[in-house]
Design brief:
Layout (H helix, E strand, L loop, with lengths): L7 H8 L19 E5 L2 E5 L10 H20 L2 H11 L8 E5 L3 E7 L3 E8 L6 E7 L3 E7 L5 E8 L2 E8 L5 E5 L11 E3 L4 E6 L10 E6 L5 E6 L11 E5 L6 E7 L6 E6 L10 E4 L5 E8 L2 E8 L2 E8 L10 E4 L6 E8 L4 E7 L3 E7 L5 E3 L8 E6 L6 E7 L6 E6 L4 E3 L14 E9 L5 E9 L10 E4 L14 H8 L3 E5 L9 H5 L7 H16 L8 E6 L2 H11 L6 E5 L17 H7 L5 H10 L13 E7 L7 H13 L8 E6 L9 H12 L1
Parallel strand pairs: 33-34, 33-35, 35-36, 36-37, 37-38
Antiparallel strand pairs: 1-2, 3-4, 4-5, 5-6, 7-8, 8-9, 9-10, 11-12, 12-13, 13-14, 15-16, 16-17, 17-18, 19-20, 20-21, 21-22, 23-24, 24-25, 25-26, 27-28, 28-29, 29-30, 31-32, 32-34
Helix pairs in contact: 4-11, 6-7
Length: about 700
């Protein structure tokens, strides 16, 4: 793959075909103000550098035309008719009750009607249901947290006037406290109860970006707010990191965490026995201590995951001893190499852990204080189990059983290990999906590594089928691709097509080594795994060799984009939702900090990091004068993680450098969205159905 400059002759040859715009779609033209950039003595072309100033009028006009083309495309394939078909398949209402939280004496959950969303409170048996808060469906509730005694709730909410943090009495409905200053719902809405009368929350002085968050304490009786922790108290603080508070109700140990894109955070603690006074923050652990994310506190004990011998291990320690691994009490460690801990929970008396085998088959365990574990029987195998609600002040947890075929099933488990189905939260699955099955296989990749792949198909589908297929991959940040129930996807499969997930390296499906074998200079393993899995689907007759599409989102854009660059003929259609396609350029942009990507992809401070970014950047490595798959890119205009120009550049390259008249290249911009695209799956499957 050519990572550097094209020869002058090739450059001129490529320009000669630039004007061959598709005969079927009149794509808007835009100049390619290419700049030559040199780093560490290495030069590269920054194509469409003019699009990096995306707010320029000429660029905004170009984006509007792109949206118009996409809208016309959807009209031509009857988007409304497809939506009606899927709506007809749907059984009953969406979650009758959702966002369920259980405490010793009280349960909370939400109900919707046509115009409002209402928060209800009941006793622990589910009786005595009373409404305690309601808001218009035009408003957005981002987060809520009841006080364990049930007397009040915290709510983060947005409306046309801004973002708000409110504390509301569940008895009178009165607003006890409200702040409309320094809230930023695009980033992190988080708050905790420090006492009956005090809350602690994350604030943002720059509500339009992610810089310089702080932690504040508010007295809900007086309305007084005091900043108690900020970046000035953190050594080598990066203003793009954000701060999050935590405390166990009834404890005096308030914690502050420095949250980064890494899985290893930094933690501080302060004793707030005298909550009104100033107090000293003590450093308790850092990224070097291999503690994953943040710990859960119960009494004097801290429960957390720590890497030991390359394996995620559930341990117990104290706040003072967390920085010393020799003082850990190991509670749970999977015995088999192919298993890894995906999550854990701590209730009033119990500890629970979820393990995953190759990222696809999960099991729930109960763990006692001596480290003895037992499986909680849940009708295994199950593709995915998640903790839905847990609290160290509650005597029960709520879990979700999830599968590619079945919608979410909710179960409550109390500290006596009694299991109760929560049928009022569970959705039904349409009968037309009954013949869909899931199989999990392993595919040999380019270097002999066996890569897990999940295949969702119709039971009656034959191996020599000529149907369509879509393969999805992510492979970044050590995240596993977990099952997600999507009706448009299952409707696609129910018609005899195939959906597959390639669990490529760079994720966490097989543990820490699996993750590290898909980052930086080893990143090519991610897209090669995807290519080998895609070829397997063709060779084994799961899909027609000319009817396979590839789908990605976010950082998965690197995996899919580079796979398409390396072998454009492998796929007939390509869909990306807020994909990362030009990671090299992030470090150059105002208000964008490349540190979030440094660990996985490389940094611009060293020649090794620069070369890594050069090698894995789909835009930099784009092959001009080559037929690419039909492509749909979906981006949020308010996305602060992946700038809009990222996908705009990629689409401009496709539209202006020798597009095949039979191929379609679309950019769909969601003006009011950030790093989330509503109806992503619906739009993706519409495109695949039409283009494959």
């Amino acid at each position: 793959m050519n990572r550097f400059l094209f020869s002058l002759f090739s450059f001129c040859l490529l320009l000669s075909c630039k004007q061959e715009i598709s005969k079927t779609i009149n794509y808007p033209k835009i100049d390619n103000s290419r700049t030559d950039v040199e780093e560490f003595g290495i030069k590269y072309n920054n194509d469409y550098s003019n699009l990096e100033d995306i707010k320029k009028e000429v660029n905004q006009t170009w984006l509007l035309k792109q949206d118009s083309i996409t809208a016309d495309y959807y009209k031509s394939i009857d988007r409304k008719g497809t939506a009606k078909h899927l709506n007809d398949l749907h059984l009953g209402d969406d979650y009758n009750r959702y966002w369920y939280e259980a405490y010793k004496e009280h349960n909370f959950y939400w109900l919707d009607n046509d115009s409002t969303q209402v928060l209800f409170k009941s006793d622990s048996s589910g009786k005595g249901e009373i409404p305690v808060f309601s808001t218009s469906m035009d408003n957005t509730v981002h987060f809520y947290s009841p006080h364990p005694d049930g007397s009040k709730i915290m709510i983060f909410i947005s409306d046309e006037n801004g973002d708000f943090l409110k504390v509301i009495s569940t008895e009178s409905g009165d607003i006890l406290f409200q702040t409309d200053k320094d809230m930023n719902m695009q980033q992190a809405s988080w708050a905790v109860w420090a006492s009956t009368d005090h809350i602690v929350y994350t604030g943002w002085p720059h509500t339009e970006d992610t810089r310089n968050s702080y932690i504040a304490m508010a007295d809900i009786r007086t309305g007084a707010i005091k900043v108690i922790f900020d970046g000035g108290q953190v050594k080598d603080y990066d203003t793009e990191d954000f701060l999050r508070p935590d405390i166990s109700v009834g404890s005096n140990k308030l914690q502050a965490f420095v949250i980064t894109a890494s899985e290893h955070f930094t933690g501080y603690s302060a004793d707030i026995s005298n909550i009104e006074s100033d107090y000293t923050w003590e450093y308790i652990y850092g990224q070097k201590d291999s503690i994953l994310y943040w710990p859960k506190q119960r009494g004097d004990n801290m429960y957390f995951l720590r890497y030991k011998g390359g394996k995620k291990t559930l341990v117990r320690s104290t706040l003072e001893s967390m920085g010393d691994p020799t003082k850990d009490v190991v509670l749970f460690k999977p015995e088999k190499e192919e298993m890894t801990i995906t999550d854990y929970a701590v209730s009033e008396k119990n500890v629970y852990a979820i393990t995953s085998k190759n990222g696809s088959d999960e099991t729930l365990y109960y763990v006692d204080n001596q480290g003895k574990s037992e499986i909680i029987e849940l009708d295994y195998p199950i593709s995915d189990i998640q903790f839905y609600h847990t609290s160290t002040t509650s005597n029960e947890i709520t879990i979700i059983k999830n599968d590619w075929k079945y919608d979410l099933s909710f179960l409550s488990i109390n500290d006596s290990l009694e299991i109760k189905p929560l049928d009022n939260l569970t959705r039904q699955t349409p009968e037309s999906f009954n013949d869909i099955i899931t199989e999990i296989i392993e595919v040999e990749s380019h270097d002999g590594t066996m890569v897990p792949m999940t295949i969702i198909r119709n039971r009656e589908k034959k191996q020599d089928s000529k149907g369509k297929g879509v393969v999805y991959a992510y492979g970044a940040y050590g995240f596993s691709v977990e099952p997600f129930y999507e009706m448009p996807l299952l409707d696609f499969v129910s018609k005899g097509n195939v959906f597959a997930v390639a669990h490529v390296r760079g994720g966490a499906e097989k543990g820490l080594k699996w993750y590290k074998d898909g980052i930086k200079e080893k990143k090519s393993n991610s897209w090669k795994d995807l290519l080998w899995c895609s070829q397997y689907l063709k060779d084994q007759g799961y899909v027609d060799k000319d009817r396979l599409g590839v789908w990605c989102s976010s950082a998965g854009g690197i995996t899919a984009g580079m796979a398409v660059n390396e072998n454009p003929d492998m796929f007939k259609a390509f869909v990306g939702a807020v994909p990362t396609l030009n990671p090299l350029r992030l470090a150059y942009q105002k208000n964008y900090d490349a540190s979030d990507h440094d660990y996985d992809f490389g940094d611009m401070k060293t020649i090794e990091g620069f070369k890594s970014l050069m090698a894995l950047d789909p835009v930099i490595n784009f092959k001009k004068n080559t037929v690419y798959p039909s492509t749909l890119m979906m981006s949020g205009a308010l996305d602060e993680q992946i700038p809009l120009y990222d996908t705009a550049k990629y689409i401009a390259l496709l539209q202006n450098y020798c597009p095949d008249p039979k191929r379609t290249y679309l950019l769909d911009v969601y003006e009011d969205e950030g790093h989330y695209i509503p109806l992503e799956t619906f739009s993706a499957m519409l495109f695949f159905n039409n283009e494959l």
